[in-house]
Amino acid sequence: MRLILTVEDVFDIAGRGLVLTPQIPDNLGFAVRPKDPIQLRTPDGRILETYIAYFASGRPSGGRRFYDIVLPHDLLKQDVPIGTEVWLVDGQKSLG
Question: 2-88 — its CATH code?
Answer without folding.
Answer: 2.40.30.10
